[in-house]
């Protein structure tokens, strides 16, 4: 066997990843760096960018109440919807893990919402939440409760969107389900011989064994929550009274409604930093609560 | 790393070249410089035209474009329909330097402030545009600070649609041309009940609100676009907003904002008989006419103390600064906005004639549905707020908040507008 020329081998290697690298640079890294640069400029998209240093970033913190408002809305949404989504999808996954007849149908039903695209789901929920003849208030009326004007009342609008996010947690259910099915039956058998209750088994076996799935769903959930856009854009347009003015919607409006591209880019970088820091925090703490079975062997 | 530098550099320089070429054109101010050889009859060119209309109306465009090409065989026109995110698409294409040569637009100050569209005054001087053939209110809406930037396209006023069946049932007389706010309110109150609302308000539509504010003697912003304090929060403006909000909260003749949104807004609610009156542009008229067993009429807006100011929705054909064939582009814009071109669009029923000659030919005033809309043109005497400043979208955001807060009954109109004025001053400094 002839030894291949070093150059040729390198070329072969690069040619395999080359196409991807070009795509990455042109469509991801390039725009990314461009947005970082433009965040130090004042730019309306139609005229010449004017360098204004850190002014975009300073104004954000000092002058812009909507920046704080949209941050608050987004944080509130994330803080409530992510844990709630995790708990509900875990509980549902446990139910769907039971060995019952026709379980396939239930699993499909609960996963179905995740198949529906954002805008369609948003429109569907607008009807569900309609105050006068929406199905939710119709059911509530049987209990003698006069349901609120869900999306029209500033006190309820964000809550409504959080409810909706929980409905769409089918993706998380699937991952939990896979995690649950990977837990060896042996562990449950052994512990029940030792007299462990169902609850004890859940706490001491199920939870630790699926922490990798929780970890994954947590990270994806946090990232997803901070990028929420469609609901605010389609269902409420940020209202009523800015109560659902998500950060991503604010970025969009600054860029394409007010034509402040530089400012919108600066807002995006702040969002990027927030998501990066939160993800890092979750990663840092993960060693203390995420349990990988394989690690014990090492 | 080098790839990236090149990318960003080219993106910046792209914007720069677009800008400098724009400047040269402005200083020459002669549309013929780009095609120095001659007029477009000799050199065959292709121009691009963008519209926000959906593909379904492309047939009408085709008919009009065919008429244009019969007249100017050497100018080929490529029609692009962009029904979704139209404005964003135009912005980005302007930034990238590949904007359509001619496109439909409405918010001229936004583009004029950034030098993106061609001024057309020279064509008035050269006699190619005759301002006298248009309704003056409509022609003036194509100007920014006295300079013409577009050839008007089918405009519409706003007027009242009312459901005759529901009026008969409630024993309410049909609206007359000179009906008043009091007539309007008492009609709305009598019509409300049994799942029917007398009227429907829009919680976020400050554009629509303007006509009530103007009729009441108020305004949102000074004419030079620099002042809102004492204008947006003046007693007249506050009174108008309060009255509009009271239709929901006090008189309860209009559904809550979110309830009407889900029911599809006025247009849909009117169709399904859930609302007896609503005010709108001409747009839904065609649909209503096609419905069988649907008896409705249109009426002028009500007056307050004998005063009435209406509002126009206008748009027009603009020529992009970056167009390489400005003369051909202008010829096309002019044709689209001419009597020949416009007659086809008016026949479609989506707008009013922009010149009396078309109205006469088509006997628009004799059509009972069209007549109130046509009448309203001469009441459109005040310039809409967005003409005052290219920053209007930022100001409007605060105004929308005030309007919403008042309609939701969280604040009085006066408090809400005072707040808005306070916030507008800081918001305009952000990122400047």
UniProtKB/TrEMBL annotation, chain A:
Q: What domain of life does the UniProt record list for this protein's source?
A: Bacteria
Location in the cell: Cell membrane
Q: How does it sit in the membrane?
A: Multi-pass membrane protein
- Please name one Pfam family that this protein belongs to: BPD_transp_1
**Which SUPFAM superfamilies does the entry mention?**
MetI-like
Report the GO terms under cellular component. plasma membrane
Q: Where are the transmembrane segments?
A: 12-41, 75-96, 108-128, 156-180, 201-226, 264-283
Gene3D superfamilies, sorted? MetI-like
Q: Which UniProt keywords apply?
A: Cell membrane, Membrane, Transmembrane, Transmembrane helix, Transport
Using the record's annotation, list all stretches that form the ABC transmembrane type-1 domain. 71-282
UniProt GO BP:
transmembrane transport
- Give the similarity note: Belongs to the binding-protein-dependent transport system permease family.
UniProt cross-references to PANTHER family, sorted A to Z: ABC TRANSPORTER PERMEASE PROTEIN (PTHR30193), ABC TRANSPORTER PERMEASE PROTEIN YESP-RELATED (PTHR30193:SF1)
- In Swiss-Prot or TrEMBL terms, this protein is called Sugar ABC transporter permease
The record lists the organism as Paenibacillus arenilitoris
Its ancestry begins with:
Bacteria, Bacillati, Bacillota, Bacilli, Bacillales
UniProtKB/TrEMBL annotation, chain B:
Entry's Pfam families? SBP_bac_1
Tell me the PANTHER family matching this sequence.
MALTOSE-BINDING PERIPLASMIC PROTEIN, MALTOSE_MALTODEXTRIN-BINDING PERIPLASMIC PROTEIN
Q: Entry's InterPro entries? A: SBP (IPR006059)
Start and end residues of each stretch annotated as Disordered: 15-42
Q: Polar residues bias: where?
A: 15-32
- Report whether Transport shows up as a keyword of the record: yes
Domain of life according to the entry = Bacteria
UniProt KW Lipid metabolism keyword: no
One annotated GO molecular function is: maltose binding
Q: Which keywords fit this entry according to its UniProt record? A: Signal, Transport
**Gene Ontology BP annotations:** maltodextrin transmembrane transport; maltose transport
Similarity remark:
Belongs to the bacterial solute-binding protein 1 family.
Q: What is this protein called?
A: Sugar ABC transporter substrate-binding protein
Q: Which GO terms describe its cellular component?
A: ATP-binding cassette (ABC) transporter complex, substrate-binding subunit-containing
